[in-house]
């Protein structure tokens, strides 16, 4: 089968649609008042879960470009689960917000390489791993209050 190709705005819009569909499905599970999601399985009974990464793994979209967008964010949730064991819903919502803001910057004419560097730079320059969650939170807060 021939490969389908999309470029520039058309590609970005399709990726955004996939990211939004996955993030919408996962976001409802967020926090203590989050809701359950029922996932239909091709075998056995449906699964009821409030786990963001479980929901994320099960999302399959018909449009191949939307599916790629969903899988990009699914990778974020999976890595978060592997490293932290929790926070997959938050990671998914943040990934969507980062993509949206990056896309907005590109739409306004920003250089894609500069946008990428702006996203990556804070994480490269700082050691976010503290001896405790409070210390790590303090480092993040100090960074946000700095003039960077």
Task: Please describe what this structure looks like.
The chain has a two-stranded antiparallel sheet. With 148 residues, the chain is mostly helical. The chain is flat and about 50 Å long. It has helices at residues 8-27, 52-58, 64-84, 88-107, 112-125, 133-145, and strands at 37-39, 47-49. The N and C termini lie far apart (48 Å). Helix 1 (8-27) packs across helix 2 (52-58), helix 1 (8-27) packs antiparallel against helix 4 (88-107) and helix 4 packs antiparallel against helix 5 (112-125). The protein is built from six helices and two strands, in the order αββααααα. It has a domain at 8-110: Orthogonal Bundle (GROEL, domain 1). The longest helix is centred in the middle third of the chain and has 21 residues, at 64-84. The model has no long low-confidence stretch (mean pLDDT 87).
In summary, what is this structure?
This protein is mainly alpha-helical and 148 residues long.
What brief labels describe this structure?
GROEL, domain 1, 4% strand, 148 residues, 64% helix, mainly alpha, two-stranded antiparallel sheet
What topology emerges from the helices and strands here?
Layout: H1 8-27, E1 37-39, E2 47-49, H2 52-58, H3 64-84, H4 88-107, H5 112-125, H6 133-145
Antiparallel strand pairs: 1-2
Helix pairs in contact: 1-2, 1-3, 1-4, 2-3, 3-4, 4-5
Unreliable residue stretches: none
Share in β-strands: under 5%
Give the SSE order as H and E letters: HEEHHHHH
Number of helices: 6
- The helix-and-strand class reads mainly alpha
**For the record, what is the CATH homologous superfamily label of the domain at 8-110?**
GroEL-like equatorial domain
Give the overall silhouette: flat
Which percent range fits the helix content? Answer: 55-70%
Radius of gyration: 17 Å
Q: Under the CATH scheme, which architecture of the domain at 8-110 would be assigned?
A: Orthogonal Bundle
**CATH C-level name of the domain at 8-110:** Mainly Alpha
For the largest beta-sheet, the strand count, sense and barrel status come to: 2 strands, antiparallel
């Amino acid at each position: 089968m021939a490969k389908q190709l999309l470029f520039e705005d058309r590609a970005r819009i399709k990726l955004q649609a996939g990211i939004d569909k996955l993030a919408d499905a996962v976001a409802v599970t967020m926090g203590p008042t989050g809701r359950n999601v029922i996932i239909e399985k091709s075998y056995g009974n449906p699964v009821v879960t409030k786990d963001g990464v479980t929901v994320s793994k099960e999302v399959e979209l018909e449009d191949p470009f939307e599916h790629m967008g969903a899988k990009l964010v699914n990778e974020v949730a999976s890595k978060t689960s592997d490293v932290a064991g929790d926070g997959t819903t938050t990671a998914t919502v943040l990934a969507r917000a980062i993509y949206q803001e990056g896309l907005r910057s590109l739409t306004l004419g920003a250089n894609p390489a500069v946008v990428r560097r702006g996203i990556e730079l804070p994480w490269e320059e700082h050691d976010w791993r503290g001896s405790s969650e409070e210390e790590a939170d303090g480092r993040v807060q100090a960074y946000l209050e700095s003039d960077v």
